[in-house]
Amino acid sequence: MAGRGRLGLLAVTALSASSPVVGMVGGGQLARMTHEAASGLGVRLKVLAASPDDSAAAVCPGVSAGDPASLADLRDFAATCDVLTFDHEHVPSEHLAALERAGVCVRPGSVALRHAQDKLVMRERLAALGLPCPRYSPVRTLDEVREFAGADRWPVVLKAVRGGYDGRGVWVCRAPGEAAEVLAAMRQRGGAVIAEEHVPFRRELAALVARSPHGQAAAFPVVQTVQRDGVCREVLGPAPGLDPGDAARAAQLALRVAAELGVTGLLAVELFDTAAGLLVNELAMRPHNSGHWTIEGARTSQFEQHLRAVLDLPLGTPRLAAPQVAMANIFGAGKCESAADVFARYVHVMAADPGAKIHLYGKQPRPGRKIGHVTVPGDAGDDLATLRARARRAASYLGSGRESDD
Amino acid sequence: MAGRGRLGLLAVTALSASSPVVGMVGGGQLARMTHEAASGLGVRLKVLAASPDDSAAAVCPGVSAGDPASLADLRDFAATCDVLTFDHEHVPSEHLAALERAGVCVRPGSVALRHAQDKLVMRERLAALGLPCPRYSPVRTLDEVREFAGADRWPVVLKAVRGGYDGRGVWVCRAPGEAAEVLAAMRQRGGAVIAEEHVPFRRELAALVARSPHGQAAAFPVVQTVQRDGVCREVLGPAPGLDPGDAARAAQLALRVAAELGVTGLLAVELFDTAAGLLVNELAMRPHNSGHWTIEGARTSQFEQHLRAVLDLPLGTPRLAAPQVAMANIFGAGKCESAADVFARYVHVMAADPGAKIHLYGKQPRPGRKIGHVTVPGDAGDDLATLRARARRAASYLGSGRESDD
């Protein structure tokens, strides 16, 4: 059971003569940016990627090709690592439990991770903890959806209990007919569904915290996220105009969730800011799009913090490195574009804004696909609207060749 | 001759369907940290490493093994890259000239780079430009050294014209007997020698600038460096208490050297700060130890800036990201230590100082070898002596297990 407790020096020494090996399941941009942090820390990162074209595969030498849904692939991969962690949630929890029984050090552990994989498990747990959530109910039939909505509470949000991300698996249904379509489609896929109230939020916030197996925890400043069609487009950090009491409550809530669920590594809590207070929308247990701004904006990036946490090293300070920061995602736009086309726009964006920090993930720019992000760190006294406009403009131009994607 | 002019999109497209490939000769920590920046920018970095144990080889997938002194190895490597650059100066300039004649895009070019490879060439050029240097003279015999020193100007500094670094190839000779020993040893090696006056400096400074093939240039804030036995141990940025006029003069001097010598990429100018003004000590044309602080301390790191410059992309802002920064190098100490021993000290250093940014290079910790560095970014109003003590303490403990290496 050594692998299930603290990592300790024994496990490290056993596998590596130099430094510990963190194995990340998933080869997307989160693994890519984690590799950048790992290189700095002298931590070796291995990646289990589904495809050699994955974002991390181009920059990380320790990439294994494998299926994150295959226990055999996971087991082979884990045998080469000191600790296993994730850049996405699409790993069967029964496989992770099997690995844990075999002594693999899985962080976050399978029991904690289920709350980021299964929306019903998450809702029930948070409700049991008395934490504020939207009203919800598992639903199988249209009658159950109708009953949930009552006479006047449409639209209703239906969510796939498992497998959703970036707006996929979430449907805002305005009327019973739309709900019926979703239920039929999900029935065909064999996936369970929950209904949630459609929350009239003022804005969305995200609270990002890290927790180590020791139980040490640290909270990054709470940020505002701006989504469109369920996809994060912008992040403003710290959340502008957020009441300090609300900011503290959001961070405390995330720290409590991390502790109660036994999270190891990062926990992102996506929140609705409503007239009635904060409500938990989603959980993620990995580096998160709402934390990309920390690369330049915080003294410890979320990627370094995740590595420290899963290795049970003391956490770094989450303090701001810039008083305010705007981040905008870059999305692919053109249908026949290559990464070289996107790169060719660098000259214009860099000439226009020498202070914009551009991150490209080396991904083929399919329409709507996140292929990078831009962070604009500001000084005290800078106008946040200007920082935000700069980030949006650079991101839009890189993605589409246009200065605005609105 | 396309490769000798601006990189242009043609060369990029020709070699890569995704993004340009920068080839770096040398696989040390400079290549490693350049890879971290390249990953962020979506630039592919390939490395020509002398050994698979080199620092960059563990983190960069595009590593070729080869001898930087072999034209055949350089040619094979260059054929896989859009632009060739360097993490050290130990590449024969005649090979680089041959590559340039064959159309390879070499940045900095062989003519510029000679000034960082050959101390006599550098001194003669700077003298011709009227730039302030220590008094110097090529010397072959002890009589010539005696003549240079005259009656009362001992000690005299003797330097190998080529091949020195980190204090190697530099000898402070207190008396003719010591000079005779150096000359005899250098005669055996077949290496030329110059004599320089022993400058009574108040402190050492470094001015780091970047220049692109377009001629765009940007200067980082001038820093103070603290050396021992010719090896950089600490950097304080910006140089504390430096008169703004002197800071501007130092930056202007470096910008002028970069322009006059036709440097592309980074140029570090090491300076003596004397009662009579600034004197140029050394030049380097690559990321430089005096610029490691820029990773956290400047809005654009020196590594990102070097990539932008050699790709002829617009340069990033060199502005401070923290008002003051202290950096200390980590040196190996114990004779029988491994990188794992150094890593095992992380827990203590990180617990003691959550704001210290630690960089380990994945190198075997041989005594006296640079194996990493620690940067402590400070806020306005922080006491620089405290920042410096924190950086030194963390670096010393990581290297030796002791809190002070004095």
Task: Walk me through the structure.
Two copies of one chain form a homodimer. Chain A has 406 residues and is α+β, with helices and mostly antiparallel strands. Chain A folds into four domains: 2-106, Rossmann fold, CATH 3.40.50.20; 135-197, Dna Ligase, domain 1, CATH 3.30.1490.20; 199-321, ATP-grasp fold, B domain (D-amino Acid Aminotransferase, Chain A, domain 1), CATH 3.30.470; 324-406, ATP-grasp fold, B domain (D-amino Acid Aminotransferase, Chain A, domain 1, 2-Layer Sandwich). The first copy, chain A, is 34% helix and 25% strand. Chain A has 14 helices and 17 strands. Chain A has helices at residues 8-15, 29-41, 71-78, 93-101, 110-117, 119-128, 142-149, 176-189, 244-261, 294-297, 302-310, 339-344, 346-352, 384-400, and strands spanning 21-25, 44-49, 63-65, 83-86, 136-139, 156-160, 170-173, 193-197, 203-211, 217-219, 223-228, 231-237, 265-274, 277-284, 324-331, 357-360, 370-378. In chain A, strands 9, 10, 11, 12, 13, 14, 15, 16 and 17 form a nine-stranded antiparallel β-sheet that branches. In chain A, helix 3 packs across helix 4 and helix 5 (110-117) crosses helix 6 (119-128). The longest helix of chain A is centred in the middle third of the chain and has 18 residues, at 244-261. The first copy, chain A, is globular. Residues 1-16 of chain A have low confidence and may be disordered. The interface between A and B is large, with 58 and 57 residues.
